[in-house]
Amino acid sequence: MLKNLVNTNIILASGSPRRQQFFKDLGIRFEIRLKDIPENYPSHLVREEITDYLAKLKAEAFLEELNDNELLITADTIVWLEGQAMGKPSNKQEAQLMLQELSGKMHEVVSSFCLISRKKEIVRNEITRVYFKKLEPEEISYYIEKYETLDKAGSYGIQDWIGLIGISGIEGSYFNVMGLPTAKLYDCLKDF
Where are the alpha helices (DSSP H) in 68-170? Predict the structure, then answer.
């Protein structure tokens, strides 16, 4: 469907299995390139400023290596709760604390992506509101023991068990909560 990119080599610079599956589901031919880039950002940044900055930082690390017919895509996602950013937990204890914080509250999931070529750069973001019911401590413990929480911002995946039993509603893009605003990305790729 992306006729404008038929002669373009699309590169996804993400190790996220969910983002890779989105690209397959969208019918986009792509290759994966990875670099270990520290996800540090200036402390004065808030919400989408953080994810915009990190998506762009990740993309620009590849810029010198890109050929003229290559388009690189990076992304970043955080959970924004009461004025604080939550990234990925570093261990199960941190995951437990994050889920306890999210329990019974509304938070925002903020995802940004960057499209970069040798001639052009686009950064876009999307914000989705997610409402968690009050979670029982046993539910949080069960989820952390049975599911992979360390590779997800805010320690949860909406598509997992915790999403099935704990999320009472969302406002915005479901796929954004999984880590990529697919409709917005697709429109940007059509216009690139």
Answer: 92-102, 137-146, 161-166
Q: Which amino acid is at 88?
A: K
| Tally of domains in the chain | 1
Q: What is the CATH number for 16?
A: 3.90.950.10
Task: Please list the active-site residues.
Answer: 76
165 token code pair: 């039993």
pLDDT in single tens digits along all 192 residues of the chain: 677 777 899 999 998 899 999 999 999 999 999 999 998 999 999 999 999 999 999 999 999 999 999 999 999 999 999 999 998 999 999 999 999 999 999 999 999 999 999 999 999 999 999 999 999 999 999 999 999 999 899 999 999 999 999 999 999 999 999 999 999 999 999 888
